[in-house]
């Protein structure tokens, strides 16, 4: 408001001053009649009016500057207050992290959750390690040995010197990670050889997650390191704290070459993790048919744990056409179609719910109950298909004898 009024007064004062100057100039050069005399007298007032307008604009300028200064002070106060709030929040978050870290250590339920291989458990483990590392960094009590630091930096000369001086090759570094596991993570075969030649335990497991060097090389997709560790007689069937083996990790992550390497070395395909997952289930839900075939040929049981047939029905990663082909593979190799999942649903129930008519004949032929009833409504699959206007599904169910 002040700015607009100020500019109006500037314009008015300038315009009036110009008009006044023109009047005086005109009367000096030309004789005036009575009408022009009146205009000339009126023109004499232009100067004081222009001066008043100028003074008004100047005063408004001062007021505006004063308001700007006050606003600047207020902004500075708000900035300081916000800075203090952020500092308080940071301190509060730090305290919360400490409390949660203590809770995780003391709570049996959380301890159990950390031992699983679910995404939530992975997040808990990552959080635990981050908090633990933060606390140790803050206290200056970082568990990093000279050997671990040298391995981490890839300094072969330092590794040689430290090992020759008698250092324990299995002494854990930061976060309870052995030097060999760190070398595997970095794909440094030369340092891995140095450590193994000095007696490092090739099957040593990290303190928090229970990973071995082979598992870390698998997770990071370092094929040459995996082959080297296998050649040095690494145990391919050791499981981490969640019950997942290197084969399960390769199946889950889609590291196909490493997956094949592990199978060639007789990796056990029927290991069930603590959350009920198998390598076959992991490969199936991703739609990797070749890996599914390889696991079945290696003797994988399609009915173990969270069965592959049930799991693949819910998979968003597996394309529909591949899903149907994988189900056929699983059925041909003894996969059962009447096993229920944690929601008490069979694969056929899922197929009906999702309007997948093409799955109905296949699942029915392998023994799926086409007259399954929903407990909440006591309606059959056919009744639900009709209710949902799934005409093709309803027709497919009728052909298989559904009532």
In short:
By secondary structure, the chain is mostly helical. The chain is 65% helix and 0% strand.
Descriptive report:
The chain is mostly helical. Among the domains are: 132-211, Serine Threonine Protein Phosphatase 5, Tetratricopeptide repeat (Alpha Horseshoe), CATH 1.25.40; 236-336, Serine Threonine Protein Phosphatase 5, Tetratricopeptide repeat; 339-402, Ankyrin repeat-containing domain (Serine Threonine Protein Phosphatase 5, Tetratricopeptide repeat), CATH 1.25.40.20. The chain contains 21 helices and no strands. The protein is flat. Mean pLDDT is 78; it is low at 32-39 and 136-140.
**Cα-based radius of gyration, to the nearest Å:** 39 Å
Could you name the CATH topology of the domain at 236-336?
A: Serine Threonine Protein Phosphatase 5, Tetratricopeptide repeat
CATH superfamily of the domain at 236-336: Ankyrin repeat-containing domain
CATH class of the domain at 236-336, named: Mainly Alpha
Succession of helices and strands:
HHHHHHHHHHHHHHHHHHHHH
Q: Give a short account of the largest sheet.
A: none
What's the overall average pLDDT, rounded? 78
Q: Care to count the β-strands?
A: 0
Task: Report the portion of residues in β strands.
Answer: under 5%
Helical amount among residues, as a percent range? 55-70%
DSSP summary: helix tally: 21
Structural class: mainly alpha
**What is the CA–CA distance across the termini?**
79 Å
Low-confidence stretches: 32-39, 136-140
Architecture of the domain at 236-336 in CATH? Answer: Alpha Horseshoe
Using the alpha-carbon principal axes, give the shape: flat
